[in-house]
Design a protein that fits this description.
Length: about 475
Amino acid sequence: MTSGRTRDGGSHAEPLRADVVVVGAGPAGCVVARRLADAGADVLLLEAGDHPASPRAGLLDVGPGSRVVRRHPAWIGEGFWDLPRGRTLGGSGAVNGGYCSPARPADLEAWGREWPRRYAAGLARASERLRPRLEPMGPVATRVAGAFPERVSAIAQARIGARRVTAFDAWDPAGAGVRVRTGVSVARLRWADGLVGGRCDGVVIAGRSHDHDDDNVGAVEISATQVVLCAGTIGSASILRGSGLGESTGHPVGHRVQEHPEVLLEVPADWAPGEWAPGDGGVPEVPPALLTHVVRLEFPDHAREPLAGDDHVRPGPVHADGPRLAVPEVEVRPYALPMHRFIPGLDPVPLRIGLALMNPAGVGRIDAGGTVWLPTEPRDSEVLSAAAEFVADRIGVGRPALTLSTSQHLSGSARIGEVVDDQGHVLGVGGVRVADASVLPELPRCGPYYTVLAVAESLAADMVAARPW
Ligand SMILES: Cc1cc2nc3c(=O)[nH]c(=O)nc-3n(C[C@H](O)[C@H](O)[C@H](O)COP(=O)(O)OP(=O)(O)OC[C@H]3O[C@@H](n4cnc5c(N)ncnc54)[C@H](O)[C@@H]3O)c2cc1C
């Protein structure tokens, strides 16, 4: 027996067995745990984080001093960064920008024949639980949209009024009888008879979170008929590798991850009204949504191949080194206020809008030590520079002052077709599946949040049909 922290903070004895152990209570983990419990499985949901996330909608609790993120080393473009990932109930969905946008059909064509249908079914199920809402357009978005009236799309937010709604709120796994344990970090998979890559029959716990070193339970094993990894693109890759899976077993974990590279363009401070700011306690009345609308622009001059007719977006096969969509698409993000108004603890920064390349040619990797490498792809930075000049000119801000950024949309460390199959099974291995952002075969031209939820719903439906417990 071991002790686990229950959702209400109490500690109680834990049977060392479950039908299904779900690792990570992020968006994917909450979906999977809920659906399997509804289908009658005894589910144990293990979450490394041990602090409740900020409930404040719109606030990205990823700044210095945040207790609900883990920082991962990353090389982006020109230097090292600390990439924050949510480490709390709701995962990164509890600290993210909250914008929910579905993939478009062309984004899914490279995923395989079945996926457009599966995705639509998964999204329909997800939207019954997490119904994102449209918000009115604020002054910054109004300025930007005015320059591109035919290119504006409203995007919805995962919130109700001023309250952020996380996947943990929406799927409520505990309400379905899932045993939720926080402050429990999984180190690796356990292999039946010690045979690496054979059949997984449980997990090995690394120990309690740093904040609970006093009652660290040390290494403990939990048996399960099925383990589902939902520890996120970085976390699931780390567990797979820590369990002995990788190139040598035919599993190219982390060898081709994707991100939407972003640059920030400074705009005049007086575009944003100054009235809203976190108060002393940081609790605003009703913060505005970070992002309510985006402008989508295509840059055909930077296409690698000539366009045929008016075929703007042509999905191609997935190649390690090639773009799947020939015409670069840039998403212009008119953030409502300077970022320090949304990220507690951040030093004041100018008001900036984002420009993100949504179908980059560049890919990255996660190395064996867990460092994320996102080198600059020359064609991608060319597109972003050209886009920045074009947008700056249209919105009348003169010579663009650009800052390198990242969308925080990392995906694809255990891609369907390479590391897992269409049902999320790790290829050739028994007893373990992956169901989070790691499995996305290609990053769609939108934020991945809604897609992760839709894919998790679809993979959970497969598990329910197979009842592997
Ligand atoms: C700052 C930020 C802003 C973003 N903004 C947006 C946005 O506006 N729109 C959008 O579409 N997308 C956004 N994203 C991306 C989106 O949030 C992610 O794609 C999504 O959360 C991925 O879900 P996941 O379930 O794969 O993993 P995660 O959300 O990363 O959840 C993984 C969970 O597993 C836990 N875990 C990790 N390792 C272990 C372990 N060993 N043992 C136990 N538990 C573990 C983690 O603590 C975490 O709770 C943003 C991401 C970030 C970080």
